[in-house]
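Good morning C.,

I know you're traveling, so I'll keep this short. The sequence:
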Amino acid sequence: MTSEFVQAVLLTILTSSIPLILAAIGELVAERAGVLNLGVEGMMICGAVSAFIGAYDTGSALIGAACGILAGALLAAVFGLLAIYLAVNQVAAGLALTIFGLGISGLIGKSYVGLKLTNASHLHLPWLSDIPYVGQILFGEDYFVYAAFALVLGVWLWLNKTHAGLQLRAVGDNHTSANTLGLDVQAIRLWAVLFGGGCAGLAGAYLTLAYTPFWSPGMTAGRGWIALALVVFASWQPWRLVLGALIFGGATILQLQAQALGVRIPSQLLSSVPYLATILALILLSVSKRGKANAPASLGQAFIADK
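The tokens, ready to paste straight into the viewer:
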């Protein structure tokens, strides 16, 4: 087994995991604030089409990424208005957001189907990028990869090492007590939801700017739902998201390699392997008392401010 083959497999696993990490880390922040936003898939797909249009029309991947983030945040703002300030059921609002996002993305991206972009720029450091097995992975990836891991580290530090992070966790654990202590529960939750939307939009931007640099309706292919499951799998801990996303990426590679080797298993069953792996992980977590203990106590509960 050559170093090039091993490196190619590891790179594929890594790139498959990046949109999941980006979307899931944003949803984790929103859920730690007590808000369950099931609209991740809708925000991702709108981020994907907006990023493609922005990059295609301006020739700048950076502008495209900014458009993706903005699109995700705008949809998150709509969700925030409904679920946080109008106290609409969070599950219903999130599902509506996903349906809306899938529909509107197909509409605005209709004239861009079939067009292609140049791949996003990759880091290259002489000598370091040529190290066998790990050189390309550590020193030769696109900037979205490094941004994803920087976000995970930044969120972990912010949640656990800052006063603002403590306030957000307090809102998620007991919004009534947090309000009694003088915290603006609705404002904190709104900022958390906007951050989650921006991350979901960035995840979608990665799909069209780096992973597969073209636009196709429905190209998120359920990744938003997997990101939601990963938050639970990670027990609302940022660093565990990376492990869960890599497991999903590994399952994706497994089914692709099986198809390439001509394994006599129905292709539909092989395509379901990543999702079956996620379900198995959630089942294992459901019997873990430690995982349940980390869940924000006020998750999904509406807060009505006193007038």
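Safe travels,
E.
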